[in-house]
Amino acid sequence: MRSLDVHTHVLPPELPRWSPIRLERTGECRARMLREDGTVFREVESNCWDPAQRLRECDETGVGVQVLSTVPVLFGYQLQPKRGDDLARVLNDHLAALCREHPRRFIGLGTLPLQSPDLAVRELERCVQLGLAGVQIGSHANDWNLSDAALFPVFARAAELGAAIFVHPWDMMGEARMPKYWLPWLVGMPAEVSLAICSLIFGGVLERLPRLRIAFAHGGGAFPGTFGRIEHGFRARPDLVAVDNPHPPSAYLKRIYVDSLVHDARALLSVLELFGAERVALGSDYPFPLGETPPGALIDSMSFTPEVRDRLRSGTALEWLGRDASSYDL
């Protein structure tokens, strides 16, 4: 059985001139992602925009289906709302076209202009109409954590529509203090994911929306490793922590999904012990350097039963996405 990878990123071959990132081709199969000030954000290869190359690499590594989402630097939350909405539409139309062209190999997660919740709800509805399974959002939207009341209508509409949500870290906290050693990606990203999970729990979003299907990148980031402290803090200082939701974090462990991208067998066992295999799905961060190559290598290296391995490689993902295996090349 081939796997379903819930965490992959894709770009259109061209980006609008007003996008926060532009592509500069440096060869037939290479390009640079440039920020607005001309500095290099990342160098990428054609597997980031060429579906034929992606599918060749999927076939080589046993991946039957990829869930496609944009590169988080293109969330564009810093743009004016109309520009953010325009960018989301461009990216989502591209995603939907890829999924229509390869309906058994690609599943799409759109992006939203979260800086304008009204526009975000409208674009979420359009994503569903386009056939996308849901959306990818950032770990925060400018000054709003995911618990902010301004964002609740977006989560509520996603729950009503049955749209899956994938939360990916971006714009990492403390980045100004981490100029060396790639620390924003190594320290900031895990912290951002934990911030997102805690915000949704303590803010009562998960309590108010029991049908919301939401997943978090990078194995839940720092959350599994600091869960004991988070739970203890809730019980030790309810006057500070339990102000918007009287239920402890442990009550929501079976309500959220995470991907398997933790790079270490001990870490994956910890994630599985905390959440259960029914809440963990294979994710690789393809095609970027902090990803896992080949996708699912860690899962395959461990002594899981066939039932658990199948659950991790595709079963959990299908449940979170609300899709049936028979529709895909698994």
In short:
With 330 residues, the chain is α/β, with parallel strands linked by helices. It has helices at residues 51-61, 81-101, 117-129, 152-161, 183-202, 205-208, 223-236, 238-241, 265-275, 297-301, 306-321, and strands at 3-9, 21-27, 30-35, 40-45, 63-69, 106-110, 134-138, 140-141, 144-145, 164-168, 214-216, 256-259, 280-281.
Give start-end ranges of low-pLDDT stretches: none
Sheet with the most strands, sense and barrel status: 8 strands, parallel
The secondary-structure element order is EEEEHEHEHEEEHEHHEHHEHEHH
Identify the overall geometry.
Answer: globular
Mean pLDDT: 97
> Rg from C-alpha positions?
19 Å
Structural commentary:
The chain has 330 residues and is of the alpha/beta class. The chain contains eleven helices and 13 strands. It has helices spanning 51-61, 81-101, 117-129, 152-161, 183-202, 205-208, 223-236, 238-241, 265-275, 297-301, 306-321; strands spanning 3-9, 21-27, 30-35, 40-45, 63-69, 106-110, 134-138, 140-141, 144-145, 164-168, 214-216, 256-259, 280-281. It has an eight-stranded parallel sheet. Strands 2-3-4 form a three-stranded antiparallel sheet, with no helix packed on it. It has a two-stranded antiparallel ribbon with strand order 8-9. It is globular, with a radius of gyration of 19 Å.
Topology:
Layout: E1 3-9, E2 21-27, E3 30-35, E4 40-45, H1 51-61, E5 63-69, H2 81-101, E6 106-110, H3 117-129, E7 134-138, E8 140-141, E9 144-145, H4 152-161, E10 164-168, H5 183-202, H6 205-208, E11 214-216, H7 223-236, H8 238-241, E12 256-259, H9 265-275, E13 280-281, H10 297-301, H11 306-321
Parallel strand pairs: 1-5, 5-6, 6-7, 7-10, 10-11, 11-12, 12-13
Antiparallel strand pairs: 2-3, 3-4, 8-9
Helix pairs in contact: 2-3, 3-4
